Amino acid sequence: MDSLFDFDGPPDRYAVMGNPVSHSKSPQIHQALARQTGQRIVYEAIQVDPGGFSQAVGNFRAAGGKGLNVTVPFKQEAWTYAEERSERAEQAGAVNTLLFLDSGLVRGDNTDGVGMVRDIVLNHGCAISGRRLLILGAGGAVRGVLGPVLAERPARVVIANRTAEKAEILARAFGGNLVMEGCGFDALGDETFDLVINGTAASLHGESLPLPDGILAVHGACYDMMYGLEVNPFLQWGEAQGASRLMDGLGMLVEQAAESFWLWRGVRPDTAPVIASLRGG
Ligand SMILES: NC(=O)c1ccc[n+]([C@@H]2O[C@H](COP(=O)([O-])OP(=O)(O)OC[C@H]3O[C@@H](n4cnc5c(N)ncnc54)[C@H](OP(=O)(O)O)[C@@H]3O)[C@@H](O)[C@H]2O)c1
Questions:
Q1: Is 25 a catalytic residue?
Q2: Is residue 7 over pLDDT 70?
Q3: Are 141 and 116 in contact (CB under 8 A)?
Q4: Could you report the per-residue pLDDT of 32-89, keeping only the tens digit for each?
Q5: What residue ranges in the chain does DSSP mark as E strands?
Q6: Which residues have any ligand 1 atom within 6 Å of their CB?
Q7: What is the pTM of this model?
Q8: Structural domains for the chain
Q9: How many angstroms separate the alpha carbon of residue 234 from the centre of ligand 1?
Q10: How far is the CA of 37 from the centre of ligand 1 (A)?
């Protein structure tokens, strides 16, 4: 029980909103980040019914909430809800972090892309700069990571998707001066890639992607944004292709959380022990 002389007041409140959300590891991750950095926060998972997002955010703010993570299916609604947005959230067209500023403004950010890039480059020591990348998928997750991936200045980026048109649209939207292309899986086969990133939901359903043999360069690496699967068909494909590295998305999950934590608290935690503990290490 808090003492009468506890001048610190109640801990600041944060939460993740989504549907479903009970499986979310975010409360566990943020509590670990807070313990490590000595920050007094509480962080919970809140399930929100379809159509109820704005009301739920309003209730959370009225109860003194300081910030939110937002997950499927509300990232676009969170983008609309935010009154100002970071450039990376603007580019992604989706918001996964809301900050309730002292001025009363609601700021939206997207930490997924920077989280994935940090995991690949810093945690795994796998460069993106100057490399040839193949990115599989053209949904929200891929859109969210493209800005931070391109900021690393890869030599080439090909986006391949089951629905080719969506990949073509995305490649055009992010193209700029970089050599970037969008296509269907059937157009792959003529070139090789140093890093293949799976941002499709295929692994989630235990399904394999129709990828041709030989598109992974010698010493090439594979990264799946999915994590926690006993059997990951995409990483199995990578192994059969002789990948030098097979990486799942658990580090991305922790890194995007750490970036949100930094935005809210102004403290940058050490992610390595949190990733290790989630892996049971
Ligand atoms: N580690 C992390 O922190 C993190 C963060 C965000 C997302 N993710 C993961 O990223 C994945 C994608 O999420 P999202 O939000 O982008 O989903 P989304 O917007 O629904 O997009 C799904 C994508 O997967 C493709 N797809 C679905 N089933 C497929 C199949 N059987 N074969 C081939 N392609 C298939 C879709 O292709 P069509 O366009 O043809 O339908 C689309 O490109 C999910 O598995 C999610 O768990 C991980």
A1: no
A2: no
A3: no
A4: 999 999 999 999 999 999 999 999 999 999 999 999 999 999 999 999 999 999 999 9
A5: 12-18, 41-47, 67-70, 84-85, 97-100, 106-109, 132-136, 156-160, 180-183, 193-198, 216-224, 245-247
A6: 112, 137-142, 161-163, 166, 199-202, 204-205, 207, 209, 225-227, 249, 252-253, 256
A7: 0.94
A8: 12-110+252-278 (3.40.50.10860), 118-248 (3.40.50.720)
A9: 13
A10: 33
